[in-house]
Structures are given as C-alpha cells and as structure tokens.
Here is the input.
Amino acid sequence: MGLFGGLFDKKACSICGGEIGILGNRKLEDGNCCKSCASKLSPFFSERRHSTVAQIQEQLDYREANRASVAAFNLTRTLGNGRKVLIDEPAGTFMVTGSSRWRDENPDVIDLSQVTGCTIDVKEQKEEIRYKGEDGLPKSYDPKRWDIDYNILVTIQVNSPYFDEIELKVNESKIETDYSPEFHRYMEQAEEIRATMLGYREQAAASAGPKTAKTCPHCNATCVPDANGCCEYCGGVM
Here is the structure.
C-alpha cells in the first residue's frame, strides 16, 4: 500500500448511507459521517470524534424533533448583540443564535430549568506592533509596543445530553480600551444575561418545592442537596 493508500478511497456515510466525497469525511468513533449530516448537529456539540454512530443518530433525531419546538417558540425577550439569547418566558425556554432568520436555522430550544450556571470572562488579545527595518524585515520597538483588544464572553452552563455549555461574545466589535464607556456598556449587557439566566435557574429550583436531606454516597454526610443536586460538603452528586 502506498503512502496515501486508502486516503482517497470512497467511503459511505454511516448515518445516511450517502457517498462521502474527498476530504468530506467526518470521523466517528465507529464509523464515518458526511458533511451534510454533520451540519445538522447542534452548533454547541464538540464531541463528534468521540461519538458512536448510534449517538450521532440519536442527536440527529433530537435535532429533527427540535424543529417543532422552534416553530412553537414565542419570542418575548432578547438579550445581547450578535449571537443573542432569545427567551420564551411563558414556555420557560430559551435559545442562543446569531441568525435573524432563526426559525430557518433550527437553534436548540432549551428549558430554562436546564441552566446550571453562567459566567463572564474578559479575553485579552495581544499582538506586537512592529515596524519595517531598513532590510525590509519587521523589527520590534524598544520597549515593545502592543495592540491590545478585549472581548467579553458569556458562558451559559446547561444540563443537556449533547453539550454542557454555550458561549457567546457580547461585543459586536473589538473593544480597544478596557474600562472605557464601550467596555462598561458591553459588560452591563453581559451582567444582564448572567443575572437573567441565574434568576431563572433559582426560580426553577424554588418551584421544584422543598428538598429533603439525604445521605451523600461519597462522604456519608447528611445534608440537603444544592440546586445542582450536589452535596454541600464534598460537592459530589447525591
């Protein structure tokens, strides 16, 4: 077998049975997936290479059923810019999408009760500024100069069988100065998303009614599980 033996052999998609073109294969743990089938998976899903054919088929069935949830979604509140958080308050559901034609995009419809946490992170992007020397090559200033930009990211943690977090960038363009009016404006939007998501989580926990004390199987302590069903002493799931 040559150096490239098997690389350009035709393969069939283990999901739909269609022929996979050159460089179009998306490897699975026990099979192959074509680009068309892979494109139908949740955009928040990142474990394809470690998934079996059966697991991918299960998710595709869920994604197809999700279309009915999208069709029934009644938008009552919008948070963020670019990739937005859309909320259907009467139904207690939300979705995250950057498309204005979201009904055509089939974004995941998630119960607000599935939210387990929400965090904000400021990411710094740093690139050295150089000048062209007499030899035509880039040179560093002394001391070095930097072009620094900032992005404000919100990560919503969820309890889902297909993904456990959703990340969205709040600012639509790069923020060039931290703690500038622009920075504060986007940070306020990030805080609003975080407070809203955590608020819905607390409401869901309260509506579930009072919880009884249990004995933790990990540390044998007796306590009332927290909102995520974890022991307050060791953090293990009860």
In short: The CA atoms of residues 129 and 145 lie 5 Å apart. The longest helix spans residues 181-207. The first strand starts at residue 11 and ends at 12. The chain has a mean pLDDT of 86.
